[in-house]
Write a structure and sequence with these properties.
The protein has about 475 residues and is of the alpha/beta class. It has 3 domains: about 200 residues, Rossmann fold; about 140 residues, no CATH class; about 90 residues, no CATH class. Helices cover about 50% and strands about 5% of the residues. It has a 5-stranded parallel sheet, with helices on both faces. A two-stranded parallel ribbon has the order 6-9. It is flat.
Length: about 475
């Protein structure tokens, strides 16, 4: 391959949109060309699976948006032919901050479920979201939210309507699926979030009575794993939940599919040439959707391709292998404390790596570029976490310069020295956001660590010392012997 070929591949990677996030509805809903369907995600899209759990960047809003659009849902039906998605209609029960004609926002929720609402009032709102969506999907006169809420509180009328809708969808040989996305935005206090979450989970359980009207919740792990939730059937719902997780092979399959499906002839030709040199078949979109392209999941071939794109090892010379393989290094260093890597972080690393330094003659990206990519992905990940957890940067900042792993008392001492606990509580109260734990008189620095542990940002080693994955450590400017240094 010529330097011009490597440049074409480098340019293609660098041109992948840096913000690879999606919304369930609106301008940033998923596009057909963005769909890559790992085999393990089939259960997440199955209409009969009511709860899908995933961390930020794992694809909750992406798959919500895929289900919510006819064109992308039909593509998903090709990818997962056993799910019957070609016989599914979709409406939305909640979409977070994104409104519009299809959206159901926190403002709508707050206008019907007051600050001192009872569990029955919360359940009434969630029933209304199902009625409103299913009635619209059946082609009947759309209900205003006010009328949907009124119907929801009249249990006889509600059941009569649901029975009528069930028969309609049965006659049409169709399943109607009500999708709930961005549910972490329902509340800014722990008591209210639990009230609304428990109410919705009760509705999910009650909807088991219907075969043709289904609900699907895309939830963050910390929301469903809240130990203070008291719904009696919660253990059964948790055990049936599907975790939205990406393997290393899935992530490389995603990257390589972007290259082979490039609309730029120089990129497509260069990647085709690379594959021919390794005796690896090419592919089109239909093959990739149907998971008929071996490179999308064959680790050995993926590693061979990465060895051409970036050289085999993270170091040069005869001892370069000691630094690790370029194929495994990004996955290892982008993992959170639950060993999960998101597409957003992986693509972010590759994009930054392809923009680093001069254009090499014999590869598309360099090992030093990959290390730089980790720094960029780490910063992006922490910035994105801050959008969800407004307290995160305030608790990481006092730890800058600390050498990890570290005795827990040294970590707690850093927080005490800067009065982090009191500052966090005051900031959450002043700015009306959900604090990392319920505020009590007995809160301590350990509560901060436990909150970080729940979201995979810190963990405790077997010897009791506290540690942090590189994905967060680098941006937080903590140090680690032999680890990638912060920028």
């Amino acid at each position: 391959m010529l330097q011009t070929d490597f440049k074409a591949l480098r340019d293609a990677i660098s041109s992948i949109p840096a913000d690879v996030s999606n919304d369930a509805v609106g301008e940033y809903a998923p596009k057909l060309q963005d769909i890559f369907a790992p085999e393990t995600h089939a259960a997440a899209l199955a209409p009969g699976v009511p709860i899908v759990v995933g961390s930020r960047g794992a694809g909750k809003s992406f798959w919500s948006g895929v289900l919510g659009q006819d064109e992308t849902r039909h593509a998903a039906a090709t990818a997962y032919p056993n799910l019957g998605l070609d016989r599914v209609q979709v409406g939305f029960g909640f979409t977070g901050a994104v409104g519009g004609s299809e959206g159901v926002t926190p403002e709508m929720l707050n206008s019907y479920v007051g600050t001192n609402a009872t569990p029955d009032e919360a359940k009434g709102f969630w029933w209304a979201t199902i009625l409103r969506a299913a009635i619209k999907g059946a082609g009947e006169t759309p209900l205003s939210f006010k009328d949907a809420v009124r119907m929801a509180f009249d249990w006889e009328e509600r059941n009569k309507s649901l029975d009528r809708l069930e028969k309609h969808y049965q006659d049409q040989n169709t399943t109607f699926l009500v999708v709930y996305d961005a549910l972490d935005t329902v509340a800014t206090t722990w008591p209210r979030r639990r009230l609304l979450t428990e109410a919705l989970l009760e509705i999910v359980w009650a909807m088991r009575a219907y075969r043709r009207i289904k609900v699907k919740l895309f939830l963050r792990p910390d929301q469903i794993d809240d130990d203070a939730l008291r719904f009696v059937e919660l253990p059964k719902l948790r055990s049936g939940a599907i975790l939205l997780k990406w393997s290393g092979a899935d992530l490389y399959g995603l990257l390589y599919s972007r290259l082979i499906l490039s609309q730029l002839d120089p990129t497509k030709n260069a990647f085709d040439q690379l594959l021919r040199s390794l005796n690896i078949p090419s592919a089109n979109q239909e093959m990739i959707l149907a998971r008929q392209w071996a490179l999308a999941h064959n680790i050995e071939n993926q590693s061979r391709v990465m060895a051409v794109l970036a050289s085999p090892f993270m170091g040069d010379g005869p001892n370069g292998f000691k630094k690790g393989k370029t194929y495994g290094w990004p996955i290892e260093h982008l993992a959170d404390a639950f060993s999960e890597v998101t597409p957003r972080s992986f693509l972010g690393l590759m994009i930054a790596a392809s923009k680093f330094g001069g254009i090499p003659e014999d590869r598309a990206i360099t090992s030093e570029g990959i290390r730089h990519g980790l720094r960029a992905a780490s910063k992006t990940r922490v910035d994105q976490l801050h959008q969800e957890f407004l307290w995160i940067k305030g608790v990481l900042a006092p730890l800058a310069g600390l050498l990890l792993p570290q005795a827990e008392e040294e970590v707690f001492k850093a927080w005490r020295k800067t009065n982090t606990l009191a500052q966090l509580i005051m900031d959450a109260e002043n700015n009306k956001y959900l604090p990392p734990f319920e505020i009590t008189k007995s809160n301590s620095e350990r509560d901060i660590f436990l909150a970080l542990e729940r979201i995979g940002v810190m963990f405790s080693r077997k010897d009791g010392r506290l540690d942090m994955p590189d994905l967060f450590r680098v941006a937080a400017k903590l140090l680690k012997k032999g680890g990638t240094a912060p920028a």
